[in-house]
Amino acid sequence: LYVTRKLPEEIIRPFRRQFDIQMWLYEEKPINREALERETKHADAILTMLSDQIDRSLLEQAENLKIIANLAVGYDNIDLSAAKDRGITVSNTPDVLTETTADLTFALLMATARRIVEAARFIEQGSWNNWAPFLMAGKDVHHKTLGIVGMGRIGEALARRARGFSMDVLYHNRSRHLQAEESLGVHYAEFESLLEQADYVVCLAPLTEETKHMFDKEAFSRMKKSAFFINASRGKNVDEKALYHALINEEIAGAGLDVFEDEPIDSSHPLLALQQVTCLPHIGSATIETRNRMIELCLENIALVLSGKKAKTLVI
Ligand code: 8YV
């Protein structure tokens, strides 16, 4: 088994009895292409993640590979059709990260609406020398309308949180989610109609050919001027230039972003300069408990597949 990032030895150790485990050991830098090619060429299994592109040319050389265990619920970093052609199993980590990612998404929405990061920076910089009635005044979240684009597991978990804050919830999805409509009192809306009605538009859709750049100039122009856009899914679902222009032209009020078109971004990224934007370094599922559960699930899937069984959380 080759692990493409340094992971905590305590979680890996119990599995060392079962597999010969090799790992990329440089904590501060991702695996380079050359090493990735060299290691996947001979491995029976790889435990990999979004920062690694598992493409056709890599898979064509992978002589023994039986499973790619992706440390994420999304798998847009893997060429699924190439994996299928070579009979390689792909697994992901759904469910174990649902509640954690919904927590972060709601926290990002709250932080953006209530200017929490900006206010913390303000006080740290020593700028709080007076109380003023509208100092760091944000916008209400309770009783507002939330529009969720992508009503999968995380979307549903976010809807539950929003209902607890007395929000009205609209959602848009490829298919209706009747159970959520019934149990949570959420309402289906066409994409355009959701954009026009929501005070907070949250993207939780996976990245696919259909969702790529679904938030474009036209989409942002449909949103209310007072509305906020939150993205905790994939950066490429958004045309970032269109988002930037919508923000500077005040077509929308602000944005909270945990993901970007090209990650990681550096401090010169134009969106970082906007005071009405809260940016996070893709930490949706980043809690110690959840990261540990994700790693364990990957290792369980690998153990199953290498002993001839089906992965627990199978993509293909
Ligand atoms: C991952 C994510 O932690 O699960 C996903 O799809 O985006 C995150 O939970 C991150 O992508 C690391 O692979």
UniProtKB/TrEMBL annotation:
Record's keyword terms, sorted: Oxidoreductase
Q: Record's InterPro entries? A: D-isomer_2-hydroxyacid_DH, D-isomer_2_OHA_DH_cat_dom, D-isomer_DH_CS1, D-isomer_DH_NAD-bd, NAD(P)-bd_dom_sf
The reply on keyword Oxidoreductase is yes
UniProt cross-references to Pfam families, sorted A to Z? 2-Hacid_dh (PF00389), 2-Hacid_dh_C (PF02826)
Give the D-isomer specific 2-hydroxyacid dehydrogenase catalytic domain ranges.
Answer: 3-315
The D-isomer specific 2-hydroxyacid dehydrogenase NAD-binding domain covers which part of the protein? 106-284
PROSITE patterns the record matches: D_2_HYDROXYACID_DH_1
Concerning its family, UniProt says: Belongs to the D-isomer specific 2-hydroxyacid dehydrogenase family.
Name listed for the protein in its UniProt record? D-glycerate dehydrogenase
Q: Which organism is it from?
A: Sediminibacillus dalangtanensis
Q: Taxonomically, what lineage is the organism?
A: Bacteria, Bacillati, Bacillota, Bacilli, Bacillales
